[in-house]
């Protein structure tokens, strides 16, 4: 075998470095405003003239231009608009996040190309043999990797909203007891409450100031935060706005019901904690066994990756394991 650098290795390194650069540019998007404010904190033009444009800002401009062009290319694909509804749950974030669903898809594509380039690097240094199956696997892994990050962020955001919901209910109950209206109560909560729920109440307050009807504002709130407790509150407010009634007494009942549901949820979590731990251990056990066998006998699973029959069996194993996780999740899920 002749000595030298493999062309596959060079291509893989080039793709990996380029995609890594793009990922760094996207990640620096949220810190650019802070760096810029630091440069002009003295309200003079001297720091800007002295330091000029930083390398990070130049990378940011180039990366943002690449992301915009990639998004424009994706916009020309027929039927791409059908995915907009799917990505709306990830777009409800902080106010400074003005990304579109096309930019989210573009970020997924960049990550997919990055892992694909990483796979070519591994093939170039002879860690893996080139395979269409594994190339597709690495690309799909990188493509769906941002979804995991966004989904975790969305779940944490909803959990934070659920934790702060009792505070909002208490504030609205106190406002109704002193004779405030629904719109005034929403304004009080938006002014006093911080975090994701405070942002949502601020959005409702802004919608009301722009002349939207209360029912539409509440419905849009539930669309952004599809939580059962939020649906219960918005439905109660809509009914009270239509029919009237003792709103203070009704919200006091809502508060008691919410506290009872929270106590029941905590009791269920403590009761099913041991079973949930066993399920998590069983989910991780196959990977631990495979890792141990791989360490003891590196060539034990080689046939699974080097033959078509082995690849088919590997796909069947992954499918069965996915079904197993879904079944366990369905069994452990308790509606109350």
Fold and architecture overview:
With 336 residues, this protein is an all-alpha fold. The protein folds into 3 domains: 7-130, no CATH class; 158-271, Receptor-associated Protein; 273-332, no CATH class. Helices cover 79% and strands 0% of the residues. The protein has 15 helices and no strands. α1 (7-27) runs antiparallel to α6, α7 (132-177) packs across α8 (182-192) and α10 packs antiparallel against α11. It is globular.
**Whole-angstrom Rg:** 26 Å
* Portion of residues within helices: over 70%
**How many domains in all?**
3
* Classification by helices and strands: mainly alpha
Oligomer: single chain
Number of helices: 15
User: How would you state the average pLDDT, rounded?
Assistant: 76
Largest sheet: none
**Beta-sheet strand percentage?**
under 5%
Q: What is the succession of H and E elements?
A: HHHHHHHHHHHHHHH
The termini sit apart by: 67 Å
Outline:
With 336 residues, this protein is mainly alpha-helical. The protein has three domains: 7-130, no CATH class; 158-271, Receptor-associated Protein, CATH 1.20.81; 273-332, no CATH class.
Task: Describe the secondary-structure layout.
Blueprint: H1 7-27, H2 32-39, H3 46-51, H4 55-75, H5 84-91, H6 101-124, H7 132-177, H8 182-192, H9 195-209, H10 214-224, H11 228-243, H12 247-271, H13 273-296, H14 302-306, H15 308-332
Short descriptors:
336 residues; single chain; mainly alpha; 15 helices; Receptor-associated Protein
């Amino acid at each position: 075998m002749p000595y030298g650098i493999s062309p596959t290795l060079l291509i893989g390194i080039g793709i990996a470095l380029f995609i890594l650069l793009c990922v760094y540019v996207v990640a620096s998007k949220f810190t650019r405003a802070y760096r810029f404010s630091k440069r002009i904190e003295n309200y003079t033009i001297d720091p800007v003239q002295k330091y000029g444009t930083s390398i990070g800002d130049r990378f940011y401009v180039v990366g943002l231009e690449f992301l915009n062009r990639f998004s424009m290319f994706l916009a020309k694909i027929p039927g791409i608009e059908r995915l907009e509804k799917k990505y709306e749950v990830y777009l409800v974030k902080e106010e400074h996040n003005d990304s579109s669903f096309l930019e989210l898809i573009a970020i997924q594509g960049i990550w997919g190309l990055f892992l694909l380039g990483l796979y070519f690097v591994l093939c170039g240094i002879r860690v893996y043999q080139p395979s269409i199956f594994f190339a597709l696997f690495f690309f799909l892994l990188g493509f769906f990797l941002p979804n995991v990050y966004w989904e975790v962020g969305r779940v944490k955001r909803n959990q934070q909203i659920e934790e702060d919901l009792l505070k909002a209910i208490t504030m609205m109950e106190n406002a109704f007891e002193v004779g405030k209206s629904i719109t005034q109560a929403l304004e009080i909560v938006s002014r006093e409450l911080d975090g994701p729920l405070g942002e949502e109440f601020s959005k409702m307050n802004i919608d009301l100031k722009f002349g939207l009807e209360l029912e539409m504002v509440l419905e849009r709130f539930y669309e952004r935060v599809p939580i059962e407790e939020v649906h219960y509150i918005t439905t109660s407010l809509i009914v009270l706005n239509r029919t009237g009634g003792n709103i203070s007494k009704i919200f006091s009942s809502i508060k008691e019901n919410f506290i009872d549901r929270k106590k029941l949820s905590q009791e269920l979590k403590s009761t099913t904690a041991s079973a949930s731990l066993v399920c998590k251990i069983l989910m991780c056990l196959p990977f631990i066994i495979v890792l141990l066998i791989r360490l003891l006998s590196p060539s034990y699973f080689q046939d699974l990756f080097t033959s078509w029959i082995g690849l088919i069996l590997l796909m069947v194993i992954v499918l069965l394991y996915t079904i197993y996780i879904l079944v366990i999740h369905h069994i452990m899920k308790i509606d109350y």
